């Protein structure tokens, strides 16, 4: 039996790698999970009621692009959040989680060639792993651009060689960044949009952490694109309720962009997608329309930022995140630090190299661990203090 080779060189995904590293060792104390970005704050209590009220919808096939109510609620949220009015019919599609959209957008929109050559898909490094797999799936070359302290923890796409930019078809960008928590400024977005216009590539903007921040809401790419009068087909936005509303399991995401782009993604979705069941769409529409619970959730994370800043105040190289709910902590070796923590304390974190690409000496995540601030506040504080005392004392 023959198997395709296109994915043969993929490393194991981050969490199977973590299990292989840690699980044959006993934890050194009560287990504290700080690896996965799965929010543990309460979601709005009325979500269950909405699902029950609309339970008859489980008997129906849901619309491919999302219900009118859901797309309308998403359009209203984009208008409130970014000051950009988009047509729910032509500019927006509901997703079964943003990972689906981040993958399928490349399938639907990345060309087979760019200037007569294999296309390049730019990815920040470290990065959300679906960016790489989507690139490989469409026969493009994923091109990993370091996002380090030297570049403000965002990729310096403008500094790439001309021959790379001439082959670039798509650039993925995550702001606020996972895992570093860096936020793209208006100037960063403007420079990236102008670069995309000059070299004729698309921007896939992953803004899934946009509603968790310290003070001011992060600037979104749609706001800057409107100010610049950019081609709406050049920019595709992704967001979801997973982090904003603590509803990772609801799988309500969005993709928004130019009408031709969304048309092509919808067409692919009709053949190969799995839209949300109607009762879940009804709940999602209600959640997108409500901001009270989002403000309450953000306040909880702001308390956690303050705790983290206090715990790591004396740690050299500690970088307070601007947004999101991860700490990107400097260590000598991420794998060794994660193993030491687990064996000596029971605190479980993710080695940064599992989120990056590159040889050991050139992997920008090797000297970091990612720590998720999603556990209840008291448990999180205990985990951070334990981590500090184990790794930095």
UniProtKB/TrEMBL annotation:
<keyword id="KW-0808">Transferase</keyword>
<dbReference type="GO" id="GO:0008483">
    <property type="term" value="F:transaminase activity"/>
</dbReference>
<keyword id="KW-0032">Aminotransferase</keyword>
<dbReference type="InterPro" id="IPR015421">
    <property type="entry name" value="PyrdxlP-dep_Trfase_major"/>
</dbReference>
<dbReference type="InterPro" id="IPR015424">
    <property type="entry name" value="PyrdxlP-dep_Trfase"/>
</dbReference>
<dbReference type="InterPro" id="IPR015422">
    <property type="entry name" value="PyrdxlP-dep_Trfase_small"/>
</dbReference>
<dbReference type="InterPro" id="IPR004839">
    <property type="entry name" value="Aminotransferase_I/II_large"/>
</dbReference>
<protein>
    <submittedName>
        <fullName>Aspartate/methionine/tyrosine aminotransferase</fullName>
    </submittedName>
</protein>
<dbReference type="GO" id="GO:0030170">
    <property type="term" value="F:pyridoxal phosphate binding"/>
</dbReference>
<dbReference type="InterPro" id="IPR050881">
    <property type="entry name" value="LL-DAP_aminotransferase"/>
</dbReference>
<dbReference type="Pfam" id="PF00155">
    <property type="entry name" value="Aminotran_1_2"/>
</dbReference>
<feature type="domain" description="Aminotransferase class I/classII large">
    <location>
        <begin position="30"/>
        <end position="376"/>
    </location>
</feature>
């Amino acid at each position: 039996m023959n198997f395709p080779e296109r994915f043969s060189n993929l490393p194991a995904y981050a969490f199977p790698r973590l299990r292989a590293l840690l699980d044959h060792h006993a934890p050194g104390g009560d287990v504290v999970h700080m690896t996965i970005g799965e929010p543990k704050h309460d979601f709005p209590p009325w979500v269950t009621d909405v699902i029950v009220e609309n339970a008859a919808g489980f008997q129906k096939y849901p619309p491919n692009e999302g219900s009118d109510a859901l797309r309308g609620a998403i359009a209203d949220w984009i208008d409130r959040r970014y000051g950009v009015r988009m047509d729910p019919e032509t500019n927006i599609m509901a997703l079964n989680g943003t990972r689906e959209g981040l993958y399928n957008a490349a399938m639907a929109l990345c060309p087979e060639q760019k200037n007569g050559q294999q296309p390049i898909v730019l990815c920040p490094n470290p990065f959300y792993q679906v960016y790489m797999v989507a690139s490989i799936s469409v026969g493009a070359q994923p091109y990993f651009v370091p996002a380090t302290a030297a570049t403000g923890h965002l990729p310096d796409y403008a500094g790439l060689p001309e021959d790379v930019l001439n082959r670039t078809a798509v650039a993925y960008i995550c702001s606020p960044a996972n895992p570093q928590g860096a936020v793209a400024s208006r100037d960063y977005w403007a420079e990236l949009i102008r670069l995309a216009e000059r070299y004729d590539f698309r921007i896939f903007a992953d803004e899934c952490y946009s509603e968790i921040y310290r003070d001011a809401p992060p600037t979104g790419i749609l706001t800057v694109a409107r100010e610049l009068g950019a081609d709406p087909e050049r920019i595709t936005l992704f967001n979801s309720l997973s982090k904003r509303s603590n509803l990772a399991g609801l799988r309500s995401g969005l993709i928004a962009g130019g009408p031709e782009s969304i048309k092509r993604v919808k067409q692919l979705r009709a053949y190969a997608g799995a839209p949300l069941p109607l009762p879940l769409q009804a709940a999602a529409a209600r959640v997108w329309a409500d901001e009270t619970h989002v403000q309450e959730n953000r306040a909880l994370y702001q308390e956690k930022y303050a705790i983290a800043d206090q715990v790591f105040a004396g740690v050299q190289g500690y970088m307070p995140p601007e947004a999101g709910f991860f700490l990107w902590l400097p260590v000598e070796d991420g794998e060794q630090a994660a193993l030491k923590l687990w064996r000596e304390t029971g605190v479980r974190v993710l080695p940064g190299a599992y989120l990056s690409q590159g040889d050991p000496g050139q992997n920008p995540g090797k000297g970091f661990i990612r720590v998720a601030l999603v556990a209840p506040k008291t448990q999180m504080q205990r985990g951070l203090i334990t981590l500090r005392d184990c790794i930095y004392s």
